[in-house]
Specification:
By secondary structure, the chain is of the alpha/beta class. The protein folds into two domains: about 15-185 and about 375-390, Rossmann fold, CATH 3.40.50.2000; about 190-375, Rossmann fold. It is built from 17 helices and 13 strands. The protein has helices at about 25, 30-45, 75-85, 95, 130, 140-155, 165-175, 200-205, 225-235, 240-245, 260-270, 285-290, 305-315, 325-330, 345-355, 355-375, 375-390, and strands spanning about 15, 50-55, 70, 105-110, 120-125, 160, 180-185, 215-220, 245-250, 275, 295-300, 320, 335-340. Strand 6, helix 7 and strand 7 (about 180-185) form a beta-alpha-beta unit. The longest helix is centred in the C-terminal third of the chain and has 17 residues, at about 355-375. One of its GO terms (biological process) is lipopolysaccharide biosynthetic process. It holds the Pfam family Glyco_transf_4. GO terms for molecular function: glycosyltransferase activity. This is Glycosyltransferase family 1 protein.
Length: about 400
């Protein structure tokens, strides 16, 4: 028995934060945090743990939660309690699980919603972006939000992050002890490795006016994604190449995306082969778009991991990406790399993947091998190993 009265021979009982995956709270649109939370919910049970999905619902919205159970108070109320109440007071997970429920071994916060709880807390911190690069985050209450986030991060008994690059950021900007951080690479589900039926793919492409072989980008439209330079690089390609290959941008508008949206619309008005899909949230159709792409281009300036890279690898699409932050670690040599600040280098990589059959074949083969190493099954097993390491420390 440990101090919480739990027999370690039985399967771990893990409370999992699914706030960002809860349809009632997200409208069914999953961002990266939601994809991560949903993936753990689906794959942790296969790794031998008993999972209890829990959500921080907004005040008065607890009854809407369907994916799991609502925690007894909202996150703002819990955060306020952390600030003003004695450290001996903790949020009760047992209250959420119901009367007579056995205690949890731990709670895994997947989405930066970290407070003191009645069990150990493992937190996944994907990056320190709002602190390390405040110019890429909304300025509204930014100093207060950063201060609260740093305080919250230090409440976790252990931290998981998606790359070794992110460790450096978390240590530097959150002041977390490096010994308390473990790297667990993200992944893709096994079905991503199988090509979708061609007829289904073609229906999706037809619905959006796409021709097979286009350049593809997937990600929220925001400054750090560097889509403006991607558009400039595409427009710098020879006219014959632009005529043959569309540029397809898949992503919802984010903070400070107004100028980029105007640039995209202006390019379309000039007759350029640029397509922006801002409402595509269905994973099946997203797989169809990857399958129809001729190349995936990812010019991001900053990533804690970069999941679209692995999705493209799994889909058998040759990839070119930035040579910065976590992306070289994730690509592990399977992608062409370029300086994301250089429009000329981005354009050159796009040209190579369109015209050099040998380079395309090498990237596709290397990407498939890399995708086999980065699955959600493997991520779940490694995550459970971190749970045990933390509890047995």
């Amino acid at each position: 028995m440990d101090v919480f009265g739990v027999n370690r021979q039985s399967p771990l009982r893990v409370g999992l934060s699914v706030t960002k995956a809860e349809p009632a709270l997200t409208g069914g649109r999953l961002d990266g945090l939601g994809v991560y939370s949903r993936a753990l919910l689906e794959h942790l049970p296969q790794a031998g743990v008993e999972v209890f999905p829990l959500s921080f619902a907004p005040p008065g919205d607890a009854a809407r939660v369907r994916l799991g159970r609502a925690l007894p108070v909202s996150f703002p109320v819990a955060t306020l309690g952390d600030l003003v109440l004695p450290r001996s007071v903790h949020l009760s997970t047992r209250a959420a699980l119901g009367k007579g429920a056995a205690p949890l071994d731990l709670f895994h916060a997947t989405d930066y919603h970290i407070v003191r709880m009645d069990c150990p807390v493992v937190a996944t911190l994907h990056d320190a972006l709002p602190v390390s690069h405040p110019e890429w985050a909304s300025p509204k209450l930014r100093k207060l939000k950063n201060w609260l986030q740093i305080r919250a991060a230090r409440k976790a008994q252990h931290v998981i992050t998606g790359s070794h690059y992110s460790i450096r950021e978390l240590v530097q900007h959150f002041g977390i002890d490096e010994k308390k951080i473990s790297v667990v690479h993200h992944g893709v589900a096994a079905h991503w490795l199988d090509a979708p039926p061609v007829d289904e793919r073609d229906v999706t492409l037809g619905l959006h006016g796409l021709r097979e072989g286009y350049y593809l980008f997937v990600g929220t439209l925001q400054p750090r994604k560097n889509i403006g330079r991607l558009l400039d690089a595409y427009l710098a390609l020879p006219p014959v190449l632009r005529s043959a290959r569309q540029l397809v941008i898949v992503g919802q508008p984010g903070w400070r995306s107004e100028d980029l949206i105007r640039q995209v619309r202006a390019a379309r008005e000039r007759g350029e082969n640029v397509v922006w899909l801002d409402q595509l949230t269905d994973e099946r159709r997203l797989r169809h778009l990857y399958a129809g792409a001729g190349a995936f281009i990812f010019p991001s300036l900053h990533e804690g991991f970069g999941l679209p890279l692995v999705e493209a690898f799994a889909a058998g699409v040759p990839v070119a990406c930035s040579n910065t932050t976590s992306l070289p670690e994730v690509a592990a040599g399977a992608a062409l790399e370029f300086d994301p600040l250089s429009v000329a280098e981005i354009s050159a990589a796009m040209t190579v993947l369109a015209r050099d059959d040998g380079a395309r074949a090498r990237c596709i083969a290397a990407g498939k091998r890399r995708a086999l190493e980065l699955t959600w099954d493997a991520a779940a097993r490694r995550t459970v190993a971190v749970y045990h390491e933390m509890l047995n420390a």
